[in-house]
Design brief:
649 residues; mainly alpha; two-stranded antiparallel ribbon
Length: 649
């Protein structure tokens, strides 16, 4: 009995122990599972943590932080790692200086690509498609002139859709508009004393710009951009095009009738023996009417080239081979305006495929070998311009030389202004090889496997070799082929890739500066990005004013930013809403910067729309000083608002 009782008791103890152990194991597994979930949640939280949190971390852990957080490594170049891993905290200012120089280089490269490669390709495309100059000027060429701003906006909207880059590019569009309509117009008023504008084009551009600003403000206030709203910006641009073209044809018809009426009295005077004086006065009067007609539509004509079909936007930055003024102002019948305009000194140099040593002593050009022509096509610095340039211009040519060489290596330029339309057989053969390879490398698809076996870079290389062999065997060096214009379409695609990746790097670099310096995206957009995109307008428009074309320069100050805002918001937002599953872009404003920017831009435009007509469409220096003061007030209010917001945070 005692043995039986002990067995029963032992069995009971063992059973209880097993049950307890099982319960403990169950609780242990549940506890481990909870810990795992907490760790996973913490990991997800760390991944979603914004990169700006690095400023609150100890210096010794910042490098590890930026390496482990995806939001710190969004671009193709790890800028955050350069600052916190490559340089110690003592020499961080050196990193800022080097990256600032790199930012300036990127802005130069962006202007170069748009002016010297993208716009010429659009010119050829518009000609080959048989598009009239009226339509090409306000569509293809306007898009080419605004390409840096548009692709910067596209980069900001598509990098990540959690507002990181959206405020940057929106404020850049507002900031650039305020800068151009105040600072640039103000500077032009000081250069061109007693400047007088024509009423209809000025009123049209200012009113359309006010409408675009109002539409953008309402959109931002609602904090949402739908597909319909995005398309609305493009629709407003189409309406602007229609108004420009229709008004152009109506005004031309009215002017032709006016000229016919004025010719009749002259013929009567001529019959009385005053043929010499009358013909001169009639010719002068017709010439004056033509000039007035050109001035009446200078904002349209500033985007169209008469015989070259191309008026680039940043000539003094990129030193493009096209003249800004010569042939820029035209009538609808493609008649040149006036000899004074034709003979105006060009604002930029005219490139030649030959240097001075290639020219014979007595007239004509000496024929050069195909190999020599190939090397000249790749040469990043034109020796003829180098010899006549001053010290600062030579420094600028050296700075932009790497970008020019890379662009010459990958983009074929079809230029109607050059001999044989810039046909360079062996350079174009090389382009056939470099274009597809560059496209694969630039889009980060070089490791993508085609069919699971062939890497994309190998396929691009094979396709380039085949295309290069075809061009090499079917063309001649001394005569351009019939299909030479097809290279313009290829140049268009490659230029778009170059512009997009350059704009993408600019946005990434500005975001890095905002993080390490504690600046908001809005402040970076309305200052550095806006200044960078507007620097070309400042230089080229003031250069036009110095040459005596202040009216055209002021017209460009309103028409250019208008198109940039409509296309800079319309195209990227349409693309994002179409590709997004919700077809919606959410906007979250942490401060009131967009209200300040919209208010000051509206104040600038309203001031010009009211004051300039009251002053007889004159832009005196006193009004220019007011515009400059308005811009300084805008910067002061914006910076003060940003500082106050940062203090509250």
């Amino acid at each position: 009995m005692p043995k039986s009782s002990s067995k029963v008791f032992g069995t009971l103890i063992l059973t209880i122990s097993l049950i307890s152990l099982q319960g403990t194991s169950s609780h242990l597994q549940q506890g481990i599972g909870n810990i795992r979930k907490l760790l996973e949640a913490d990991s997800v939280e760390n991944q979603q943590q914004h990169c700006s949190s690095v400023r609150g971390i100890n210096n010794s852990y910042r490098c590890q932080f930026v390496k482990s957080h995806p939001s710190c490594n969004e671009g193709s170049i790890p800028y955050m790692q350069i600052v916190y891993c490559w340089f110690s905290s003592e020499v961080c200012p050196l990193a800022y200086c080097l990256l600032g120089i790199w930012l300036l280089f990127l802005f130069i490269a962006l202007g170069l690509t748009a002016d010297d490669y993208f716009c010429p390709s659009l010119t050829v495309i518009s000609r080959t498609l048989g598009i009239s100059q009226n339509i090409a000027g306000v569509t293809f060429l306007a898009f080419g002139n605004g390409a840096p701003d548009i692709f910067s906006s596209l980069a900001g909207f598509t990098q990540n859709r959690d507002q990181s880059g959206v405020q940057l590019v929106i404020q850049a569009l507002f900031g650039a508009g305020i800068f151009v309509t105040t600072v640039v117009v103000g500077v032009i008023s000081f250069i061109s004393n007693d400047l007088t504008l024509t009423n209809r084009p000025f009123t049209r551009d200012v009113l359309f710009y006010l409408g675009a600003v109002s539409w953008a403000f309402i959109t931002l206030y609602r904090e949402a951009i739908t597909m319909a709203v995005a398309i609305g910006f493009i629709a407003l641009y189409v309406v602007y095009i229609a108004v420009v073209i229709i008004a152009r044809y109506i005004y031309q018809g009215w002017k032709r009738k006016a000229v016919k009426v004025e010719i009749q009295p002259d013929s009567k005077i001529a019959s009385r023996g005053e043929l010499f004086d009358t013909s001169n006065s009639a010719g002068a009067r017709r010439q004056l009417d033509t000039v007035r007609d050109a001035n009446e539509h200078s904002s349209w004509a500033s985007s169209v080239n008469s015989q070259k079909n191309y008026v680039p936007r940043r000539h003094n930055i990129s030193l493009t081979p096209h003249s800004m003024i010569s042939g820029a102002l035209i009538s609808s019948e493609n008649t040149l305006i006036a000899p004074a305009i034709q003979n105006a000194p060009a604002l930029t140099r005219q490139y030649s495929s030959d240097s001075e040593e290639d020219l014979p002593l007595l007239g004509g050009k000496r024929k050069i070998s195909a190999w020599r022509k190939f090397l000249l096509g790749l040469e990043p610095i034109d020796r003829e311009e180098w010899n006549r340039s001053n010290f600062f211009k030579k420094c600028f040519m050296i700075c932009k030389a790497p970008a020019v060489f890379c662009l010459n290596l990958t983009i074929p330029v079809v230029d109607y202004d050059e001999e044989e339309h810039n046909w360079n057989k062996w350079l174009n053969v090389l382009h056939c090889l470099t274009m597809p390879v560059f496209g694969v490398l630039a889009t980060n698809n070089y490791n993508h496997m085609i069919g699971g076996k062939l890497p994309a870079w190998a396929l691009a290389l094979c396709a380039g070799l085949v295309l290069a062999l075809i061009v090499a065997m079917t063309t001649k060096s001394e005569k351009r082929p019939r299909g030479h214009s097809l290279f313009a379409y290829l140049a268009f695609v490659v230029s778009v890739v170059w512009i997009y990746i350059t704009a993408n790097e600019i946005v990434n670099l500005l975001k890095m500066f905002g993080i390490v310096l504690g600046l908001s995206d809005a402040i970076l957009g309305l200052t550095f990005l806006a200044w960078g995109n507007s620097l070309g307008d400042l230089i080229s428009n003031t250069a036009m004013a110095k040459q005596g074309f202040g009216q055209m320069a002021v017209s460009a100050c309103f028409a250019g930013p208008l198109l940039n805002m409509l296309l800079g918001i319309g195209i990227p937002c349409t693309y994002v809403t179409v590709t997004d599953s919700q077809h919606l872009i959410h906007l979250h404003h942490q401060d009131n910067q967009y209200i300040i920017s919209a208010a000051f831009l509206a104040a600038s435009l309203s001031s010009s729309a009211i004051c300039i007509p009251l002053m007889g469409f004159r832009v005196p220096r006193m009004y220019g000083a007011y515009l400059l003061t308005l811009y300084l007030a805008y910067l002061a209010v914006s910076v003060a608002t940003a500082v106050q917001h940062a203090h509250h945070q």
